[in-house]
């Protein structure tokens, strides 16, 4: 229902209606101008031809350096979403399954279903502050489990898995022979330090992107860090599907990496202010929610709420949110993406509180 | 072996060796500057956010107008290759098959195999000027055939299917209930007029791209014209895989469409000169080949040649070509892409003639 809400929001906007959009994880902040200029310069220098399906060497080298891996472990992809889908396509067969802590990003579920795999969700709850319980995770794994997807900081809860739990999960996966795909797209801008899967060796898979931490959502560039043989398979799949990420986009991303810390610090600071503003408005309401560890989301609960109906009704009041059902079995919840300015946050959340049943 | 030759050519270049590259269909001509500027302006105007998985409305409208279809029939894709792969992914199941006249573009074969479908090639030959014989095509179709792929003008032969034959093939496919996927990426710049699948109604699938006819190979933008229900399925698949083509790239492409005729005329004129130059050099050799109907390729035959060995040996002389085995069962053939300037064509083809066994 995530996409339906968005399509309806766009329709209403096209009819001239003003909508405060909390429904998408697409930051309002512009792509840093140095990235735009670097991409433009690359275009003018003729970086407009087919390029390597693995990614531009310079970008891969820089990513390898940042993550402490070798060039052969890095595959540049058409967004982190394509990295995830292509890994599912390559690693999962019909009858096999993938274990995912829920609530979860919609695309894991849709992607896995599309390649014919079964999904097994570890249901977490707000009451335990969204903790991933390793023992419960272990109970879901069987001999048909091929992947365990972690996403810390998490979309939609904005919670980070604590270091001890992360380590326990890695041990369990290892002992069961299951690969972890760790989607860390919110890590660089997290309010609290988040562990990376690479902190636990190189057996597993890191997926990351430039969308969130470099404000490049619409540029479609991400990457995976994987063992060399799997990297080769991903590159071959790129060759027959997406071919390559446009080279000029890769040079834009490379420029971004030069100011990686500064850009991330700026984003973090702005989103911390927004999170605090939202927190102060929502604290006065009857909603239950946990304090976010990272941008961009809040995932509040209202007892007895039908969030799909609520989201549709709320659109008529000029506010778009994503119903909790888009992230698993969470009908009483909805996701607020703080991807608008502070004034709009106060206005939109005010309207939202008024609309609560 | 297409990709292996290219990787080796790049390696040699990195070692400082000069290679005349006839091996890829990547024109040396730069992307027209008005396209680059339009993309840059769109970036600066903030067209850097997530956009519709169907494509930007303005671009779809213009493509719909050009092809005389409705907006709902148009899906913008991450290159025409992604359109083709995603259609195969959506339409083909294990045990089903796809019929393709051969020699054929490598990606049809690799894509179909990747989704588990069987390939049935209609073997054509130089002696009959690469004619697609409808009766022979019909004989390959059975109740497990889901797609028939046409590619006119064709890569690697540069031959256009004549109007009468095209009509007969459409009738056969219709009577057998098989959908045609018509890849027309070379149509706009063809030396001779080529029929479009849309000239025969809207039951089938047109795939086209901006790579060849707008010199935008590395930009990764193409599109499909399909019936509405299939368009919806493609859009849903985009949502969970590539998300969207960067909006600023779409505005670059839209600018290109404004000067569509002029850009195509320029490309056609330059490539006609190159084709004539190549023709005159090769006519003096013992190679057999047919006159190209379109850019960019020649597909000559040398009796008894092992083109894989020949292509590897030729690399050491500083010339890269693609062995015929990359396009089907054509070991005695190789593909020359005329994607370098006239002087280099004469020099490279001279070396090539010297190297012939």
Explain the layout of strands and helices.
The structure is a homodimer of 357-residue chains.
Chain A: H1 2-14, E1 20-21, H2 33-44, H3 57-67, E2 74-77, H4 79-91, E3 97-102, H5 106-114, E4 118-123, H6 134-140, E5 145-150, H7 163-176, E6 179-183, E7 205-209, E8 222-225, H8 228-239, H9 247-258, H10 260-283, E9 297-298, H11 307-316, E10 319-320, E11 322-323, E12 334-337, H12 342-355
Parallel strand pairs in A: 1-10, 3-4, 3-5, 5-6, 6-7
Antiparallel strand pairs in A: 2-8, 7-8, 9-12, 11-12
Summarize the structure.
The structure is a homodimer of 357-residue chains. By secondary structure, chain A is α/β, with parallel strands linked by helices.
Description:
2 copies of one chain form a homodimer. By secondary structure, chain A is of the alpha/beta class. Chain A has helices at residues 2-14, 33-44, 57-67, 79-91, 106-114, 134-140, 163-176, 228-239, 247-258, 260-283, 307-316, 342-355, and strands spanning 20-21, 74-77, 97-102, 118-123, 145-150, 179-183, 205-209, 222-225, 297-298, 319-320, 322-323, 334-337. The first copy, chain A, folds into 2 domains: 2-25 and 261-355, Aspartate Aminotransferase, domain 1; 49-258, Type I PLP-dependent aspartate aminotransferase-like (Major domain) (Aspartate Aminotransferase, domain 2, 3-Layer(aba) Sandwich). Chain A is built from 12 helices and 12 strands. A 7-stranded mixed sheet of chain A has the order 2-8-7-6-5-3-4, sandwiched between helices. A 3-stranded antiparallel sheet of chain A has the order 9-12-11, covered by helices on one side. In chain A, α4 (79-91) runs parallel beside α5 (106-114). The two termini of chain A are 21 Å apart. At the A-B interface, α2, α4, α5 and α9 of A face α2, α4, α5 and α9 of B.
